[in-house]
UniProtKB/TrEMBL annotation:
One GO molecular-function entry: ATP binding
UniProt record similarity statement: Belongs to the protein kinase superfamily.
Domain Protein kinase: 9-264
Protein name: Protein kinase domain-containing protein
Length: 272
């Protein structure tokens, strides 16, 4: 870790490891609070592509910080050797842990989808597509507030300019990404739709035994709601799922349209 960070924070135990960095719990004697410090050893980055990648992650995090449902960046320290990013600490169980334990009722799923879509809409307004929306990247802070994390695959899009390149995670990746076509920020809506489907049913909408089989199922994009699993899911939830998991990108809802859908709005009122 950089000397700059160590002057301000006490570095505690390791809490996770990613492709490029190690995350530690850090304590600030000044504020009396704990944070998450992600430390990237720049000597271990293989090439200029990886170097650009970590710089971009830090830049994008700073750009989208400021929304209560996006992990806040607190400080960035950089010296010859390390790039350190101090973030708010999100140490409650992540959405991956939660969805693998049980299915969610309509009300419970909407209580997750509303802040998740607020976070995605905020990123899209800032011209950022996350490109790796999945339960493992949806964290919760000590007060159980949802925080969208891991901008390591995120990309800027501007003025309708599209993006290229295969990024994402098999169950959650949008068909237009897999087909190698240009795509836009609506890839995030597809992935959020997959999460909503899994929360309500306990199974992914497009599945297979291997990554190749999952990709084939995603490319077919044949959305089904098996009655034995979906009998208790409301028609309005299924309507929103169809609009988020539309293979036709021009018909797929934007983040703002999802936020205006009656399923999200109705549950918001119920929740209050
Ligand atoms: N703000 C945070 N608060 C608490 N834990 C965090 C925080 N950010 C990351 N983590 C933990 O640290 C781990 C590593 O995070 P990191 O972003 O480096 O990699 P990653 O999410 O596995 O993705 P990538 O493959 O892009 O590196 C995560 O899996 C998560 O458990």
């Amino acid at each position: 870790m950089s000397e700059g960070l160590k002057k301000v924070y006490q570095v505690c135990e390791e809490i996770g490891r990613g492709r490029f960095g190690t995350v530690f719990r850090c304590f600030s004697p000044e504020s009396g609070d704990f944070y998450a410090g992600k430390s990237i050893d720049k000597r271990l980055l293989a090439d200029s592509v990886d170097q650009e990648c970590v710089q971009k992650e830090s830049k994008i995090m700073q750009l989208v910080s400021g929304n209560p449902n996006v992990v806040q960046i607190i400080d960035v320290y950089e010296d010859e050797t390390y790039l350190d990013i101090v973030m708010e600490l999100c140490d409650s169980s992540d959405l991956y842990d939660r969805v693998t334990k049980r299915t969610f009722s309509d009300v419970e799923a909407a209580a997750i989808m509303l802040p998740l879509m607020e976070a995605i809409a905020h990123c899209h307004r800032r011209g950022v597509a996350h490109r790796d929306i999945k339960p493992d990247n949806i964290l919760f802070d000590g007060r159980n507030r949802l925080k969208l994390a891991d901008f390591g695959s995120a990309e800027f899009f501007h003025d309708g300019r599209s993006m290229r390149g295969i990024v994402g995670t098999p169950y959650y990746v949008a068909p237009e990404v897999l087909s190698g076509r240009d795509y836009n920020e609506k890839v995030d809506i597809w992935s959020a739709g997959v999460i909503m489907y899994i929360m309500l049913s306990g199974i992914p909408p497009f599945h297979g035994e291997t990554a190749a089989e999952i990709f084939e199922a995603v490319l077919r994009g044949n959305l089904r709601f098996p009655t034995r699993i979906f009998y208790s899911v409301s028609p309005v939830a299924k309507d929103l799922l169809r609009k988020m998991l539309s293979k036709d990108v021009s018909k797929r809802f934007s983040a703002e349209q999802v936020l205006g859908h009656p399923w999200i709005r109705r549950e918001e009122k119920l929740d209050q």
